[in-house]
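Record 1 of the preview.
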Amino acid sequence: MFQQVDCVRHDGFMDKQPKYRQVADALRREIDSGVYESGTRLPSESDLSARFAASRNTVRSGLSLLVGEGLISSSQGLGYEVRRHEVFELNASRFEDLSFPQSGDAYSTDVTNAGRRPHQTFRVEMTTTPEYIANRLKVAAGSRAVLRFCHRFVDDVPWSTQATHYPEWLVEKGPRLTEPGDIAEGTTRYLAGLGIEQIGYADEIAARMPTPEEARLLEMGPGVPVLIWTRTGYSQEAPVRCTITTFRGDLNRMNYEIGDLSARSENEAQ
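->
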């Protein structure tokens, strides 16, 4: 049986924290220690009120803190559930690197190789280039470009959105970029087959809270940030695309491998 919240700290002094914070702290510790595992429901507000000798409003305030931290989610009529955190790890050094074997595009290959199930939907449109994209592609702001937008899932859970902008001059050389569906071999390999090989990338990584549209597409609750990965791809002559990938911050981790890693053991390799 659970005990009531202990209001005495380890140093013997009374805990001055508000009761709702004590409730949140106790539940957070239990989630971290595995008492409540990923995907399980917490006891009802009524049960928690009895356990902590607190009003339902106090318990609700404590639970709201955990919702804001992204630890739990709430559904009307269904109570509170510990969020699932089955993290997918992306090796950004190898992503789209054609020297590594791929059976399709980089996303599908990486997810499949991790023993998980990929799924994505596409939207393709001609659009005008916003200034921040135009600066990276070295074209005039407002010039025409193709936007290929992917909504990606791992095991049917929203994983990321990806918006890739290709300048109009490149579309003339690679008309399949305007196809509405997937390019089976991946756009990087498709362009390389046309002699437009991407030989370098510049990456920018930032974190922020999601926009309402991002939260909707990625099915994110309050308190969960997004990771924004902007990659500009270069051929020998010019930048050929700018890709902005928006990840759920609670379900993704990126790593890079740079330099000679021969001193790393096999167990450390990702």
